[in-house]
Design goal:
- The protein is α/β, with parallel strands linked by helices.
- It has two domains: 3-183, inorganic pyrophosphatase (n-terminal core); 189-310, DHHA2 domain (Diaminopimelate Epimerase, Chain A, domain 1, Roll).
- Helices cover 40% and strands 21% of the residues.
- The strands form two sheets. Strands 3-2-1-4-5-6 form a six-stranded parallel β-sheet.
- Helix 3 packs antiparallel against helix 4 (133-146).
- It binds manganese (II) ion.
Length: 311
């Protein structure tokens, strides 16, 4: 029976490409696998697929009754609709374990590494399976995306090595330029409504019964998005009451200068300061905003202090 390899909702480049790469890998092992996606491509992923003339995976809106392999996520809140009536066979990921419970034992492979695509590339290398150049181009892009052009604290030496090995297969030379072009395509701040800016790269968590939402915009020029901060903050307040977020954070990340302006809305006004003030040096930047130097990663630098606080 056909197995769907699928990443998280609100897909990013790593989630889309790792699904394609892992489906390809499983096919080589004789499994009837197909890559799928749980949502529309974001502008960065669109840019990558257009640039390299590649076809994105099929859209799977509901996974009811299907067999699934999950890549690049393991939290129920990020899974494709119908996951609870699907059979999940495997999880390949690089995120924290998010408390997902299964009925049967499954195959799980998680590494603390910069991108899921890096893990899957290693599977190919270990088996000495050839990676087609067209796929390698996408895989390089996915690693550049998730590691913020090798600048994210989540980026490891292995991510760099694997990306360069893939770049050689793909015939790609200037990875820095490819990365910057991708991030420019991704942010496209001017064309977006505040709600789109918040929700394009957005994740939801529950910590100690508190619903937390964290959005992120990675930009090569912070001034463009900073000019819209008041509109964004207003929209965050609306969104927080609509969806009952106890804490809603928007990370405006400057990938060139390595730092983030964090906007927040919370039930308790002092909550943000209580959580992050003990871990980071907070530079106040007006209403409900702090700049944190060196802060780039939602997963590694924003989620852990929140989790620690609510423990
Ligand atoms: Mn990823």
């Amino acid at each position: 029976m056909l197995v769907y390899v699928i990443g998280h909702k609100k897909p990013d480049t790593d989630t889309i490409v790792s699904a394609m790469a892992y489906a390809e890998f499983k096919k080589r092992l004789g499994l009837d696998a197909v890559a799928a996606r749980a949502g529309e491509l974001n502008p960065e992923t669109k840019f990558v697929f257009e640039k390299f003339g590649a076809e994105p995976p099929m859209l799977l809106e509901n996974a009811r009754g299907k067999k699934l392999i999950l890549v690049d996520h393991n939290e129920a809140s990020q899974m494709v609709d119908g996951y609870d009536e699907a059979e999940i066979l495997e999880i390949i990921d690089h995120h924290r374990l998010g408390g997902f419970v299964t009925a049967k034992p499954i195959f799980v492979h998680i590494e603390p590494i910069g991108s899921t695509t890096t893990i899957i590339a290693k599977f190919f290398f270990n088996r000495e399976f050839e990676i087609p150049a067209d796929l390698a181009k996408l895989m390089v892009s996915a690693i550049l995306s998730d590691t913020v052009i090798f600048r994210s604290p989540t980026c490891t030496e292995e991510d760099k090595e694997v990306a360069h090995r893939l770049a050689e297969i793909a015939g790609l030379k200037d990875l820095e330029k490819l990365g910057i072009d991708m991030f420019k395509a991704k942010s496209r701040i001017a064309e977006k409504t505040p709600r789109e800016i918040i929700l394009t790269d957005f994740k939801e968590y529950i910590f100690g019964g508190v619903k937390v939402g964290i959005g992120q915009v990675e930009t090569v020029d912070l001034s463009e998005v900073e000019a819209k901060r008041n509109e964004i903050l207003r929209e965050m307040k609306t969104l927080a009451s609509e969806r009952n977020y106890g804490l809603l954070i928007m990370m405006l990340t400057d990938i060139i200068n390595r730092g983030s302006l964090l906007l927040y809305v919370s039930e308790k006004p002092e909550l943000f300061k209580e959580i992050f003030g003990r871990v980071y040096e907070l530079e106040p930047r007006g209403e409900n905003a702090y700049y944190i130097k060196g802060l780039m990663s939602r997963k590694k630098q924003v989620v852990p202090p929140i989790q620690e606080y609510f423990k």
